[in-house]
Structures are given as structure tokens and as C-alpha cells.
Amino acid sequence: MSNLSKLTCFWNKEPQVPFFLNLVSLFIIHCHCLKSLFSLSQAKNLDKLKIFRLCNCEKVEEVISSDKGEKVATIFPKMKCLVLKDLPNLVNFSQEGGCFNWPNLQTVRVNNIPSMKTFLRDDLNTPLLKSVYITFAKKLWLGNLKKTISYMHNNPGV
């Protein structure tokens, strides 16, 4: 999805039936009115998602919004690649409590996400992830994604 300047949400009600069940990749670029992308219950339907790119969306504050205090266990279980780029208002991926379990995540690329102090509020399990790409070739790794993103926020010239 690209250049949808008036798009404010993907789904304005909780789904009665699962949607996007076979979606493998999702690229969202230049959608400047979005503040968040999915509720937790909507995101749980994206079991097959492997590649997710979110770029140049000025108002996005979080990817997964609050969902009545529901706890997270495994979401995006097949995710291999996550790209977050040019998102000036992105505060975190999700404020939901619980542990995100991404057993297949191998590549994370981030660039120009100055408002993101931490990736998640709680725990994040990414056993295959060994670094975060800051530029095409420059990498940073402090043992886990949460610490790496926090370090980047506190050291903007990295």
C-alpha cells in the first residue's frame, strides 16, 4: 500500500471472521494519516506474514494498538524481516503487555525513528536475530532488540 494519504485505518471494526490469512508480505509506504496499524486481535490473523515494511508514514505512533488489556504470546510467528524507516512519531511497536515471540525474525532494519525509546514495553524473544541494520551496511547489536533500540534512541548519532 503506497501513497494513501487519507487512509486512517485498515479495519474500523474487530473482524467477525479472520482476514488476510494468506498475506506473506506487507509494505506500507507514504500513508500519512495512519496513527496505528492493527489492534492485537487483528494482528493475530497475520500468522503467515514474513516481511513487513513500514516507511515514510509521518503520524504512525505504534504498529499494534491497545486491545482491551489482552496479553501477547506469539504474534507474526513466521516474520523474518522487519523494516521501520522514516517514522518520526513512532513511539514503540506495541504498548501491549506480555512477551512477543518471534522465533523466525532474522533481519531488522531501522532508520530515522527518533521517537522510539523502546521497541516494546515487555519482553521480546527473537532467538535468530543477531543485529539491527542502521544503514545498508552498518549494524548494531547489544544482545537483544529492546536494548539496541533503546541505545539508538539515547545515542542519536550512532
Q: For the report, how would you describe the main beta sheet? A: 6 strands, mixed
Measured as a percent range, the helix fraction is: under 10%
Mean pLDDT over all positions? 82
* Shape designation: globular
Low-confidence stretches: none
Number of strands: 12
Strand order of the largest sheet: 1-3-6-9-11-12
**Structural class of the helices, strands and pairings?**
mainly beta
- Bin the strand percentage: 25-35%
Distance between the termini: 30 Å
Radius of gyration: 15 Å
* Domains (count): 1
Could you characterize what this model shows?
By secondary structure, the protein is mainly beta. The protein has one domain. It is built from two helices and twelve strands; from the N terminus they run E-E-H-E-E-E-E-E-E-E-E-E-E-H. The longest helix is centred in the C-terminal third of the chain and has 10 residues. The N and C termini lie far apart (30 Å). The model has no long low-confidence stretch (mean pLDDT 82). InterPro entries: At4g27190-like_LRR (IPR057135), LRR_dom_sf (IPR032675), Plant_NBS-LRR (IPR050905). Keywords: Plant defense.
